[in-house]
Specification:
Shape: globular
CATH class: Alpha Beta
Number of helices: 8
Strand content: 15-25%
Structural class: alpha/beta
Largest sheet: 7 strands, mixed
CATH superfamily: Spore Coat Polysaccharide Biosynthesis Protein SpsA, Chain A
Distance between the termini: 37 Å
Length: 233
């Protein structure tokens, strides 16, 4: 069985992916990398394709269009499970998730089923956000904690690692989220099934290249889906 795979959804991330992938490989861990690109017009797939020549542990799926965040991860999870990976990471392409933390994830996932890279535990934090965005993010995690009745500090963070047994136990076909609330839903369904989880501190760094993909629609979806998940709707 293969050890681990880092799934990275991309859309117009050619500058970032060219920096990120070598940094992941430099951690010298038994990890493959799966880039799932939604046919980026900036040539992200082409950049990833060139990197594959240098680093054979990279894999690339280029989709037909912008099919969405949750859809990209579900495609990645299917690939990871079919190819026998034991540990499966979620990671942003924009360098906000620093590869140096993969070492901490690797240690903790040996004894946990889910490891969450948390901005809101001691030692964690965020660099480069204005106060209102930081407030909104903290409020969203607190809101989820209260509605869902779970004490996880960082429900909305996207830097996570799952054991394959977790993803096999969750009926991924019944995921209701399409946007970033997918992160929240997956964590909640993991905890509901009594899998062992922990949070490790990370410093989240605001992207330097490209544009954030957070929108009002994504925020409202997360707020509404908390109630749907709580009452099994």
């Amino acid at each position: 069985m293969n050890s681990g795979i880092v799934i990275i959804p991309t859309y117009n991330e050619k500058e970032n992916i060219a920096k990120l992938i070598p940094e992941i490989i430099a951690q010298n861990l038994p990890l493959d990398i799966l880039v799932i690109d939604d046919n980026s017009p900036d040539g992200t797939s082409q950049v990833a394709g060139k990197l594959i020549i240098q680093f054979p542990q990279i894999h690339l799926i280029t989709r037909t269009g912008k099919l969405g965040f949750a859809s990209a991860y579900l495609t990645g999870f299917k690939y990871a499970l079919e190819h026998g990976y034991q540990f499966i990471w979620q990671m942003d392409a924009d360098l906000s998730h620093q590869p140096k933390y993969l070492q901490d994830f690797w240690q903790k996932i040996q004894e946990s089923d889910l490891v969450v890279g948390s901005r809101y535990v001691p030692g964690g934090g965020i660099e480069g956000w204005p106060w209102f965005r930081l407030f909104l993010s903290k409020f969203a995690s607190l809101y989820a904690q209260i509605i869902l009745g779970v004490k996880l500090k960082d429900f909305t963070g996207g830097y996570n690692c799952y054991r394959r047994e977790v993803l096999e136990a969750i009926d991924l076909a019944k995921i209701i989220s399409q946007g970033y609330s997918f992160l929240l839903e997956l964590k909640y369904k993991t905890i509901l099934r009594n899998f062992k989880y922990c949070e490790i501190p990370i410093i989240f760094v605001e992207r330097q290249q490209g544009k954030s993909k957070i929108s009002r629609k994504i925020i409202w979806e997360a707020a509404i889906n908390c109630w749907k998940l709580r009452f099994g709707l």
